Structures
1.
Amino acid sequence: MGGYIREIFTSIQGEGIRVGQRMAFVRFLGCNLSCNYCDVPECQKKDGPFLYNRKIYPNPVGLDFILDKITEPVVAITGGEPLLQPLFLLDLCNELKKMNRIIYLETNGTLPGAFEMVAGKVDIVALDFKIPSATGRPGMWKKHEEILKLAAKKEVFVKMVINENLIPRELEYTVSIIEKVDKNIPLVIQPVFGRRISNLLDIQKKAMERLKDVRIIPQVHKYLKLE
Ligand code: SF4
């Protein structure tokens, strides 16, 4: 079985609690959302070419071809939204586990059924809570909560991308869900790249009243001009 993949490359993890760690990245094509701040709009549609090492290949891409390109011990599976291709993702995870790779899954947190299919295979979950004032889309709090519950026994953190329009209710929903599942789960506040949010420290302080680990981490790879 093949998968619809945008690219495979090696870089540092630029977001979240594993920031700075070297990883192989497998970027899936296709997304069920269209966030205002999306920095990979070319990945929102499933059609498109696969890029590797400055060469262009057709999609779908065979599993063996992908596995052959994975040279790092930690593999970040990102998108787009990888959970839109759950059967292929499951095959990929199974093969990566046979290769003793650590699997880091980045997801927009909206497909709990698909997440359940692969939950036993992934080691680290970077789970987005989509904030309506930043995405421009309705909230999906129930779906985020379902996935957080399923991921709670893993290494998991919640990432909320925000801009200066964050409203208190959005922070309240985010904190309440994490607190209900496990208040030790880290919350990463990630400002939209290039936006100045004057009350960032106040937002962090408010969340810290109920959660144990609240961090402000920007997209480091963009400052370094890396992929
Ligand atoms: S979920 Fe991610 S890939 Fe999809 S539109 Fe939003 S930012 Fe882009």
2.
Amino acid sequence: MVGVRSVSNEWAVAGVDLHLELDPASSRRGGVERALREAIRAGRLAPGARLPATRRLAVELGVARNTVAAAYDHLVAEGYLTARRGAGTRVAPLPQTDPPAAAPAPVAPRPRHDLTPGSPDVSAFPTAAWLRATRRALAAAPASVHGYGDPRGRVELRTALAEYLGRTRGVRASPERIVVTSGYVQALALVASVVDGPVAMEDPGLPFHRDVVARTGRRVAPLPVDDRGATTPVDAAAAVVTPAHQYPTGVPLHPSRRHALTAWARESGGVLLEDDYDGEFRYDRQPLGAVQGTAPDHVVYAGSASKTLGPGVRLGWLVLPPRWVDPVVDAKLHADHHTEVVGQLALADLIGTHAYDRHIRGCRLRYRRRRDLLVRRLDDLGLPARGVSAGLHVLVEHPDEAAVPARAAGHGLALSGLREHWHDPDRATRQGVVVGYATPAEHAYRAALDALAHALTA
Ligand SMILES: Cc1ncc(COP(=O)(O)O)c(C=O)c1O
């Protein structure tokens, strides 16, 4: 493989890096010809692209200039290249003998409205505050921040998170026990990878997260959820739960269940992974603190910026019991050394200046208004909504779940059924749809609710 980096003419202006593979079994001229022909056929050299001067390519390939000139001549004769005085040697237009490009496959129309759960309203991303935070953080940071760092993440962010999580969620955290991750999904994979035994996961729950755990090689066991939230695992080394607002039923974990789960962890030596994915969004009364605050030696607390800022930020965090710190840090080191640094510094600044709190307060008001509109609309349809007190989604029980998606598609609406959330959909005990109300931009929300009303009624 020969890498050719150009330093002059248009080829260089375009910043093109071209890798030519010279076959050692061919003659030198044959090798250059074949490599150029392949690059043109594969589209790596586009029609009209100007090739380097023979002298320069010869130097970079370590062959005689005549060899390159002869290869160019041959490819001109074959019709791959054109050569005109003053215009240099260029890749010829596509040969006419090529079959006409196939017509692109029809693309399914994109839904006009999206009420699937999972994402916040990313049009509300605090761009100006994030820019200011990034600028301030980078201006203050020594160059060493761009080197390899602590696998737990930047101490600035871990310190800011320890304060923030203690203040807002009652988490007992110290910077040494925090590991910054690439979102919750990596946090989950890291914890699962160091668990020694089956992992109990809520049923219903998020299928993607079940897959993430299964891919670490751990057996996933269903953990039934009822009106009080998750039940107690029977034979598991870890249990993954969403206490603030169960995903997808929306039920908050009942105090008796909080107690039962922490007692299970204490007595069995198992670990409880608390996924606090939307814990910041509680509307009608003071949020219940994180379960971790009551049993910090037995609960791994996990949070994420995906609902507060946006999933594109890819920042999450774990607060670990002491005995879990070393194995998880080791797993993180071997996964990716550590999470990208500039975003961590920006988030630390955002938290430290309380711009993060202000942003969340603004979002909470907006999502609460949306929640109220949605609940009123569902009441008018005579359909009860569950899990309305928190988070960014509700569960709408519906007797005919199977018919809803087609009707929704007909109204340009993307909607998520409850069915896909069961470990075994054929043993589903309830039917319904999971309505995420954060995703549409503000101006599009009422139209999305109209489409929802059509989809839910025959
Ligand atoms: C149940 C649950 N947990 C956690 C998350 C956050 O995941 P991540 O931080 O990987 O974006 C989500 C996002 O949709 C979620 O639905």
